[in-house]
Amino acid sequence: MPHTHESSDSIDDALEASQEGIRALKISMVILLATTVLQVIVVAISGSVALLADTIHNFSDALTAVPLWIAFILGRRVATKRYTYGYGRAEDLAGLFIVVVIALSAVIAAWQSIDRLFNPQPLENLWWVLAAGVIGFAGNEIVAVYRIRVGQKIGSAALVADGVHARTDGFTSLAVVFGAVGVMLGFPLADPIIGLLISAAIIALLFGTVKSIGRRLMDGIEPDLVDRAHTALESTPGILSVPRLQLRWVGHRLQGAATVVVADDSLSAVEGTVLDAERRLGQALPKLDDVVIKAITASAGDNEIEPALCMHGLHQ
């Protein structure tokens, strides 16, 4: 008979992870919006197009928190007859939105910089531009460290990508500082040139973000996690080998399936072995929500015994 095991601890961990992700988004969004407001004021009094490009990007970075926020909330909903795996993929779709926002901000920044190359305008209050660039760097770096740390903790590729996005924004803010210094030294085109460099930096970031989010959408998994799962299963007493193992991310939680070869063909012994394997998998992969383990005997060859199925942390 199939055996189902529900882990309330896993459900609590999943909810706590979502709550922690939402909290990180709220705090980082407030920091970035405050940074953007300060930079907008300086853009108005200085006319710096490089700073304008950086400000637009910082504002877009703050906006990317909104779809992620919605995705984390959706991911906490229970599975339905239509969405039998739940709504965790909403997080990966939010990652696609982040990619679109990054691309749009690069286009806007480049357009503004090219226009200023052909229609140069004098800059004023350059010391304010320097200060705004430093503020932009500090605000983005704080957000980057926070988002990346929380994203890695809860297993959210979209949140980590957004953190890397913020970190790159921080360095482009420093580029604004260099542009202002260039103008001070008598090179007025330094400002739009730096603006174009910022656009190029955004495009470079876009490739890394597309790769990260695309891998999740294609059910890509880190090899280290697969190795840890293999080790946990193969070290379980009674399991001879693991001919099949699959893992995938759904949002910031893991799901998987495995086929194991067991030594004992009695159903009670197999169920005990599978339960032990499930426990070891849960310890090796704390973000694991669901895993289906199918057992076959070594003597049966291709003939399966009645499978003993264990669901780790089923969200129902």
Describe this structure in words.
With about 325 residues, the chain is mostly helical. It has two domains: about 10-215, Alpha-lytic protease prodomain-like (Up-down Bundle), CATH 1.20.1510; about 225-295, Alpha-Beta Plaits, CATH 3.30.70.1350. It contains nine helices and three strands. It has helices spanning about 10-45, 50-65, 65-75, 90-120, 125-155, 155-185, 190-215, 225-235, 265-285, and strands spanning about 240-250, 255-260, 290-295. A three-stranded mixed β-sheet has the order 1-2-3. Helix 1 (about 10-45) runs antiparallel to helix 3. The model is unreliable at about 1-10 and about 305-315 (pLDDT under 50).
Structure described in brief:
By secondary structure, the chain is mainly alpha-helical.
